[in-house]
Design brief:
Shape: globular
Number of helices: 16
Number of strands: 19
Strand content: 15-25%
Oligomer: single chain
Helix content: 25-40%
Distance between the termini: 33 Å
């Protein structure tokens, strides 16, 4: 074998040895389909719990989790990756089952008044913090007031607007003590709303409503949510945070249902490069990927049909305009032209490929029967949309003699990059627009969006924390902390105010429909598609179920042991690893992995449908000028 061809294989083998020493992985997913270790059959007892005889010796779960969180303060955290971790560290008054249903959490039960405005919660009497200190209703009253306090600068505080006086408290016009929350006794509290809020119990299971330990916050200040400092009340406690690598949790012995939690540790691995995440999964380093690359769909579908999990997700992928800066300020014709010039069917069929649904509106389908607004051009052919886009583009003052140059900004991700490239290509083809692509680390990206100084077009998207269209609409309210668009429309705001007080469900839905119509008429965002979740899951990992919220609490998860070696072909043996570091990862022989010994390259569109993503053939095309990486 030529030396040049050997180098990738040697590097691959060396990295495998390093991974083998990293912990309790031990399952080789690099084997061909049908040759990988298979889990034993699940056997459960009368209570539905797995029989101890079928469980793996070590219950450690490795979860790919996308971008690294900026904080684990539940009242300040922003983004899906941080929410996944926070649901393991904390528990609200309510919580969720594996299939996403809302059930009692820290609250044993509750009563709702006839007018649906007053909720009385009766807390469990055996609650404790992770340091063993008792937890009661006073902690929840303190925490909700903290989340609503303007000095906390909570990223999700506007979710509390249904609570009486929340708007005035958030604006600094009333003290936090005036928030509609009262302590009735040590284990009883009452929350008064401004009007009926059907999703309120779901909201209480989201991070903004999680309790924080007052003594913990006051002792450590900004650093309270760090390993060694954080006191929480969930099924797990924070033990380690390796920047840009991982966050590690271990089971909390003081959790109210600690004896029901089978996972001993959960390791959340930060992953920006999706192709690298697939490699980690194949090497047995991950049990659960955050996502998978769009361009590997066919290969994964063919080679990992049991591991590949796809299901609907309550979220929308879209781009946003910065309405406070040129060229989009006071230019609705230009904004609509760019919206029309995107062929969403091509993006979902050729780029994302996982069953996403093209979208022309903000709110995705499937939310409690709500019918999302659809603009008139949703029924047009793409040719008709392109024709109208050219007319509006000229109306906005642009032409071949006065071309538009625009910047598309997105957080670093293979999939985000490919979608941005597709959008830029369509704008160029239909309108002659020249686009510059800018990829940024997640924290920097969020900061630039919020500041509204250098952004023009930026990747947005929204995943709902609760099953209600209001979750999508509220962030476009004037002054909302997540309104990175600079959008302000008094009619839109007034409709949201009415939504907050309307008791009749049908009328409330009509108001939200009208609010969405106003928003889309103002061309504030560029809808692209409705999300689906797409990830690889170790078949040995059980206790989770697909759900539209994509909320998966590790407290329900556990690992099955593998069938005896005779039931599947033994993988290539590797050196034994010390018991403290866990078993070695068994790797498929390099010569058996398609493309590992090859030295080939070429454009993606010339490659076969099922290319092994570990081979050089799966390399991405050359990064275009103006895009600083993905």
């Amino acid at each position: 074998m030529p030396v040049r061809a050997m180098i990738p294989s040697l590097l691959f083998a060396c990295s495998a040895l390093l991974l083998a020493a990293c912990g309790e992985r031990g399952i080789d997913f690099g084997n061909r389909q049908g040759e990988r270790p298979q889990p034993v059959d699940l056997i459960v007892d009368a209570d539905g719990r797995p029989d101890p005889g079928v469980l793996a010796a070590e219950q450690v779960i490795f979860r790919g989790n996308g971008d690294e969180p900026s904080t684990l303060d539940p009242h300040r955290a922003l983004g899906v990756p941080s929410a996944h971790i926070l649901r393991d560290l904390f528990e609200g008054l309510t919580t969720e089952t594996p299939d996403g249903k809302v059930i009692p959490g820290a609250a044993l039960r509750w009563n709702i008044s006839r007018d649906a405005r007053t909720y009385t919660f009766y807390l469990r009497r055996d609650l404790a913090w992770s340091n063993g200190a008792p937890l009661d209703a006073r902690d929840f009253v303190y925490s909700l007031r903290r989340a609503a306090n303007p000095r906390t600068a909570s990223a999700g505080a506007n979710a509390l607007l249904p609570i009486q006086n929340a708007r005035e408290v958030l604006a600094g016009e009333l003290p936090v003590e005036e928030l509609g929350i009262s302590l009735l006794d040590e284990y009883t509290m009452q929350i008064t709303l401004t009007g009926p809020t059907p999703y309120f119990l779901s909201l209480l299971a989201s991070p903004v409503a999680f309790p924080v330990n007052r003594a913990n916050v006051e002792e450590f200040g900004e650093r309270f949510a760090r390993p060694g400092n954080l006191v929480s009340n969930g099924a797990f406690v924070l033990t380690d945070w390796k920047p840009r690598v991982s966050i590690e949790l271990r089971a909390n012995p003081y959790f109210r249902e600690a004896e029901q939690v089978l996972a001993e540790r959960v390791v959340y691995v930060h992953t920006e490069e999706l192709a690298a995440e697939v490699k980690q999964f194949r090497l047995g380093e991950l049990d659960w990927t955050h996502e998978v690359p769009n361009n590997q769909f066919r290969w994964l579908q063919k080679n990992y049909p049991d591991e590949l999990q796809i299901s609907p997700w309550m979220g929308s992928y879209f781009f946003g305009y910065n309405l406070t800066q040129e060229p989009f300020i006071d230019n609705p014709a230009l904004r609509l032209a760019l919206i029309l010039a995107i062929d969403r069917a091509i993006i979902t069929d050729k780029v994302t490929q996982f069953g996403e649904q093209p979208s022309f509106s903000l709110v995705p389908p499937g939310i409690d029967g709500y019918v999302a607004f659809a603009p008139h051009y949703a029924d047009w052919s793409q040719e008709e949309r392109n024709h109208e886009a050219r007319r509006l583009f000229e109306q906005a003052g642009y032409s071949d003699d006065r071309p538009l140059h625009v910047e598309i900004r997105y957080n670093t991700s293979d999939n985000n990059k490919k979608i941005a490239l597709a959008v830029a290509s369509m704008w160029k083809q239909v309108l002659g627009v020249t686009s510059t692509l800018v990829s940024e680390e997640f924290r920097v990206f969020l900061q630039n969006r919020e500041q509204k100084v250098i952004t023009q077009v930026f990747r947005a998207g929204w995943i709902s924390d609760y099953n209600d269209p209001y979750s999508f609409l509220e962030m476009f309210r004037s002054g909302h902390p997540r309104n990175d668009y600079g959008y302000s429309n008094s009619s839109f705001d007034a409709l949201l105010d009415e939504v907050g007080t309307e008791r009749v469900r049908a009328r409330r839905e009509r108001l939200m429909f009208e609010a969405e119509r106003v928003l889309m008429a103002d061309s504030v965002i560029i809808p692209v598609y409705s999300y689906v979740t797409k990830r690889l899951v170790n078949p040995h990992l059980r206790g989770w179920q697909p759900n539209v919220m994509d909320h998966h609490l590790s407290r329900y998860m556990f690992k099955l042991k593998s069938r005896p070696s005779g039931a599947s072909r033994a993988a290539t043996p590797m050196p034994q690893i010390d018991a403290e570091t866990g078993p070695a990862v068994n790797l498929t022989p390099l010569e058996d992995i398609p493309g590992e010994a090859a030295d080939a390259s070429g454009p993606e569109d010339e490659q076969p449908d099922a290319v092994d993503p570990l081979s050089p053939e799966s390399a991405e095309p050359v990064t275009p000028k103006g895009d600083d990486g993905a």
